[in-house]
Amino acid sequence: QLDDGSFEAHGTDTQWIADSRKELRLNRCIGLPTETVYGLAANALDEDAVRSIYAAKSRPSDNPLIVHVSSMRMLRALYHLPASGATRPFLGTANAAPEDAGAAGLAEPADMDARLRDAEDRDRAQGGDGVWPEIPRVYHEAIRRFWPGPLTIVLPRPQCIPMIVLGGHGDTVAFRFPAHPVARAAISACGLPLAAPSANASGRPSPTTAAHVLHDLHGRLPLIVDAGTCDVGVESTVLDAFSPNSRVDGQLSPCILRPGGVTFEQLAELAGPEWRRLRVYKRDFVSTELELNPTTPGMKYRHYAPSAPVYVLVPQAARTDAEMARIVQQQIDALASERGARRVGVVAVAAAEHVFVAPPGCTLCVHRVADAKELAHGIFALLRSLDETEHVDAILVQGVGEANEGMAVMNRLTKAASFHVLC
Ligand code: TXA
Ligand code: MG
């Protein structure tokens, strides 16, 4: 990694860098690993490139996309580019290939460093510290702590980002600086910010291996970069401390729009009184008003779901592991006797000693995880393999508490389960 956040390739297996660079510069979308889930990435500055993402995913185009950058310099530079349209500027110089030099519309504006320095000077003249003047100050500490990493922040829209990226939802753009070295290398090699939703077909569990991407989007992508299994396993945390939604009674009150890889507890520890007011956008099953006017559009659709119905058991704090295991067993029996399930997939947490008994005429496929973190890491792959490989006709997941990694994984599970949430 070079000082400006870009990458230099070492070793022999580097063809993927050249290949992804080529496809991305041609405004095609590719499958790309990140530390959370695999993304379906394309040039965020080009409308047609972004349109091809929605088309490949069969995603409703009113659901906005996250824009990925590979350095703070790249993010800042976006605020100094003209409106989208004619130009497709190359951002960064370290990985410039010979064909970039002088190619019309493809070179970074020669005075970009001067523009960035001017912005810093103006900020200092107004009493600021001259650091990242384009980025609202409220985010600076969060960026220092969690970037690169699984945190997405809602920022003002740079005029170079076309409206199609926003899905028609206000004048903000969600940005993320991923930690995965392959994602960072690909972004920095093409020199473009990349719009990238999770690379699943819309409504399916998010992909945490290249094989999942291939399964869902076979034949629709020129390239999928395979870097093994994703570390985190659930998507990034989407944090809004900027839009009007992040104000309550005139006070800044940051809001987690989607729990994810950075936990509520980690964000609530940031310095500053506003982080004591951190809230989580909660799907409210009884409020039709919220259902019709969701704060983040991802809330509207049934999500993350395999084709077998998913049942999730919400744990009660007072119950012991043995009591939980007994309740899981009761639910297995009920799925067989009341719903006629013949093959039941079970995802059990911290129940290593407990042996689940298959009801008569029923087969069990039991998978065990140690804790919430392991559940988050493996849940999407488990949902997929129970469905597609083990062909179960119902999936029962023992849920976890909402603390730390538990919040994100329970958010995904209750959506996958739709209304089959058991207490
Ligand atoms: O970990 C991740 O975030 C992955 C990887 C590929 O980076 N990406 C991902 O993207 O999960 P996607 O498109 O599946 O989810 C984007 C989420 C949606 O819930 C969307 O509504 C929200 O971010 N979002 C995007 N732009 C927004 C904005 N301007 N304001 C509020 N929410 C926004
Ligand atoms: Mg998604």
TrEMBL record:
Family label: Belongs to the SUA5 family.
InterPro entries reported in the protein's UniProt record: DHBP_synth_RibB-like_a/b_dom, Sua5-like_dom, Sua5/YwlC_C, Sua5_C, TC-AMP_synthase_SUA5
A Pfam family recorded for this sequence: Sua5_C
Domain YrdC-like span(s) in chain numbering: 14-262
Location in the cell: Cytoplasm
UniProt EC number: 2.7.7.87
Catalytic activity: L-threonine + hydrogencarbonate + ATP = L-threonylcarbamoyladenylate + diphosphate + H2O
Enzyme class: transferase
Gene3D superfamilies per record: DHBP synthase, Threonylcarbamoyl-AMP synthase, C-terminal domain
Record GO biological process: regulation of translational fidelity; tRNA processing
GO terms of molecular function: ATP binding; double-stranded RNA binding; L-threonylcarbamoyladenylate synthase; tRNA binding
GO cellular component, as recorded: cytoplasm
Name of the protein: Threonylcarbamoyl-AMP synthase
Swiss-Prot/TrEMBL keywords: ATP-binding, Cytoplasm, Nucleotide-binding, Nucleotidyltransferase, Transferase, tRNA processing
